[in-house]
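QA checklist item 7 of 12: single-chain prediction sanity check.
[x] sequence parsed
[x] length recorded as 400
[x] structure emitted
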Amino acid sequence: AGITNTAGLSLTEAVEVEVHDKDSKTCIYAVLSVNFTILYEGNGTTENATFPLPNSVSSNGSICGGNNSAPLLKMGFGTGHSLSLNFSHSTGEFRGDVLIFTYNTSDAKRFPGAKNKSVKHVAVNSLMDSTPLHTIYTCRSVKAIASEAVVMVFWNVSIQAFVENGTIGKNESFCKADLPTTVAPITTRTTPIVPTPVPTKPPPELPAVGNYTIKNGSDPCLLASMGLQLNITYTENKTHSVNIDSNSTASGQCGDKDATLVLEDMDTTIQFHFIVDQSKFFLKEVKANVSLVINGSRTALNSNNSNLRFWQAFVGSSYMCHKEQSIVVTDQLVINAFNVWVQPFQVKNGTFSRAEECSLDDDSILIPVVVGAALAGLIVIVVIAYMIGRRKSYAGYQTL
């Protein structure tokens, strides 16, 4: 796949992207402005890194999609950073399934003084709504998405996947934030068009919370309480969601420096590996073996990621997070976790110790970051609107 970046939108830090197929025809088109704010651990302090998606990005890893693969827009930049969005379609609509932001705290320019230098992944539900095929999804409003220690602020977004014969659609489907109550969701650039209602697949129900205990002899040594949902991307441009049964069989082992929790649910086995680093514990590795029946035949998916750093707290305490979290195991498997409460070390009297809450639950930290980032985006938009107003309009696609 090829990629084209235009510098005409540099004032807003917007990036215009065209991914091409083997015949050099456009298969994915996107324009977007993004600002990243990341909390990371420095030398004894919590630091704040803020930077935009730059105009110069790489297309390595982007996929047009076909019978055996789903379309993927992947924009790489800097030292090991990338923003990617995979797409699927059904019943005349396309949508973005999972948005994944990868960042590398070894990048001293963006993360000066970072204590833990590693590559991290953050996965969230897509920022875009389901959109009719051959139509551009457009959202000029500012939207902030928060997950773990990352806040992403988007604005001036236009995306079209499954571009037919390299011709970008002329119709726009506006996001709800851009729509007055009297405006139809689908419009052309000149004349409003009322869309034909299309049935959509209801989202999966939230998983029930399971309570799991691992014992060393007769004494509990690992406690866990959480709801788990697997989001599996496989061939034929489809994503399948599976909720793990809260009554899954739990097994594992406990040690002074490492502990393992294994959950078995029918044809699914998930292994969580925790370790101790200095005075803190965290989730280091996830292994998953999943068996699915697709089109009448059974398919096995084996996924493993040993470069994680989730659910971190001081040894002797527990980790708690009520908000939804996404753990990227591989490109094919993302685990969404709900109402997590874990303690893999130094369990006393069979009960959880004092809980350290995640940054998502700490509104005193997260809300100012989100609001500040959103306000910064709004200020940029006002300045750009003024600059654009002084420029002459021209034919073709509208500059965002």
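[x] summary fact logged: The longest helix spans residues 363-389.
[ ] second reviewer sign-off
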